[in-house]
Design brief:
Strand content: under 5%
Structural class: mainly alpha
Radius of gyration: 12 Å
Helix content: 40-55%
Largest sheet: 2 strands, antiparallel
Strand order of the largest sheet: 1-2
Order of helices and strands: HHHEEH
Distance between the termini: 23 Å
Number of domains: 1
Shape: globular
Number of helices: 4
Length: 84
């Protein structure tokens, strides 16, 4: 599981890189930095997996803590979450 502090730092660095490059954040872009798939980021941002809402209970195979979903979701709030 990705540590909260590690995720926070990765999101901040990615956000700054996008700002200085004048580009919009993408699921694939932050996924590369985190070492996960773009689909994993999309699932977290949308709060769903296979069409079902995530529960509040952590799962042993989850890569990102439920309590950290908002860190990734905040990257896409300004544009909306339909970002590929």
């Amino acid at each position: 599981m990705i540590d909260t502090q590690e995720l926070t730092q990765a999101v901040l660095k990615y956000r700054e890189r996008c700002r200085t490059a004048h580009t919009q954040p993408t699921f694939k872009g932050i996924a590369l930095d985190l070492g996960v798939s773009g689909q994993t980021v999309a699932n977290v941002v949308h709060g769903t997996f296979n069409g079902r809402r995530y529960t509040d209970h952590e799962h042993a195979t989850r890569i990102i803590r439920n309590t950290d979903f908002e860190l990734l979701q905040s990257l896409f709030e300004e544009r909306g979450i339909d970002n590929e």
